[in-house]
Every structure is written in structure tokens, then in C-alpha cells.
Specification:
Blueprint (H helix, E strand, L loop, with lengths): L8 H29 L1 H13 L3 E8 L6 E9 L5 E8 L4 E9 L2 E6 L4 E3 L3 E5 L5 E4 L11 E8 L4 E9 L7 E2 L23
Parallel strand pairs: 1-10, 5-11
Antiparallel strand pairs: 1-2, 2-7, 2-8, 3-6, 3-9, 4-5, 4-8, 9-10
């Protein structure tokens, strides 16, 4: 016996399709909306630690066979608070934060007391002839093309790593302030720091 559908085959198909779409949309809306809102905050939260305390633009290290060298770049603070860099480390030498200052009428290199402050929404250049990260006693040569990993420690205890490639670089000579960072035996009092990066 053949049954008849009062709506007709086309009308029935349209009603069923609309019902399926309505149920599917309601199901997606109720189950996906909260979960769609949830991943966004967790994704941004997980991105923040990866971003680090600071941005570091154009990091590089002066290539050197022995003794001392330095790391440079631009520290970028996109945050709403000032940040103080208190120390730095690397595998190839002990490190100090250094600055250039006038002493007895000439520029000398010395340890920077109180760390390096990077102002909120500001930048701070680490450059030859200015503030820099000093590698004090290399345990092995740092050759052009080598990539070194540095760990920065901030006054609030946070840390951040960055990598910098070594470049050959020559320029003006800088000397140490008396009593600080005395050259190692067999080294001159001028560590061979240069004034601008190689182009």
C-alpha cells in the first residue's frame, strides 16, 4: 500500500532541510560559542611569555679571537612600566653591563651601576661607544657567523633569552677606567671596541 504525504515530496525536503539547518546552527551556536571565546584568551596568554620582557632588534656580537668583545642591539619596551636590565650571561664568557663615560678628559669603558633602564614605550640602544653587553674573558673564539645565546636577567627576577650573530667589526679604540676590567696579561688596554656596525 502506497502512503501519501500531504506536504508533497518537494515541500517535505524543504521542511526537513530547514529543520536540519536550524538544529545544526543551534548546536553550533551553543557548543562552539563559549569554546570559541575560550581559546582566544589562552592563545594570547601563551603568546605573552614567548614574546619576552623586551623586544630585541638587530642583535649582533663583535667577532673576536680572544679576550673581550661585546654584544649590541636595540632593546624595545612596549610595556606600560619601565624595565631594568640587571645582568646578562652567555656560555662563552662572564659578562657585565658596560657604559662609556668621560674620565680625565677621555672616554673610558666601565661597569654600568644600577643596570640599564629601558623606559616604558621606549627603546634603548646597545652600541659601540655607548651602553653594551660586555663579554669579559672569552673561553673560545667568536668568529664571524657564529650565533651566541644570551640570557638577560631583569631587576624583578624575570629572564629572557635572545640569539645574536657575530660580525667582523673594527673602529675606534676604547680604554678601561683605572681599576676596572683590567686587561688580561698579554692584552693591550684597548679592547678593540668599534664605533658602528659593519654595513
Amino acid at each position: 500500500m502506497r502512503s501519501t504525504n500531504p506536504l508533497g515530496p518537494r515541500r517535505l525536503a524543504t521542511v526537513l532541510a530547514a529543520a536540519i539547518l536550524a538544529v545544526g546552527a543551534a548546536g553550533c551556536g551553543s557548543s562552539d560559542s563559549p569554546s570559541a571565546a575560550q581559546p582566544a584568551p589562552s592563545a594570547s596568554a601563551s603568546a605573552n611569555p614567548d614574546a619576552g620582557v623586551l623586544g630585541i632588534r638587530d642583535p649582533w656580537v663583535k667577532a673576536a679571537d680572544k679576550g673581550m668583545t661585546a654584544a649590541f642591539g636595540t632593546l624595545v619596551n612596549d610595556g606600560d612600566s619601565d624595565v631594568t636590565l640587571s645582568s646578562a650571561t652567555t656560555e662563552v664568557s662572564p659578562m657585565e653591563l658596560h657604559e662609556m663615560a668621560m674620565k680625565d678628559g677621555k672616554m673610558v669603558m666601565r661597569q654600568k651601576q644600577g643596570g640599564i633602564v629601558i623606559k616604558s614605550r621606549g627603546t634603548h640602544a646597545l652600541e659601540p661607544g655607548g651602553d653594551h653587553l660586555m663579554l669579559m674573558n672569552l673561553t673560545k673564539p667568536v668568529q664571524a657567523g657564529d650565533e651566541l645565546t644570551f640570557t638577560l636577567t631583569f631587576a624583578d627576577g624575570r629572564t629572557q633569552q635572545f640569539r645574536a650573530v657575530a660580525k667582523p667589526f673594527t673602529g675606534a679604540q676604547e680604554s678601561y677606567a683605572p681599576g676596572h676590567g683590567e686587561p688580561m696579561p698579554g692584552m693591550s688596554a684597548t679592547p678593540g671596541m668599534s664605533m658602528s656596525p659593519a654595513s
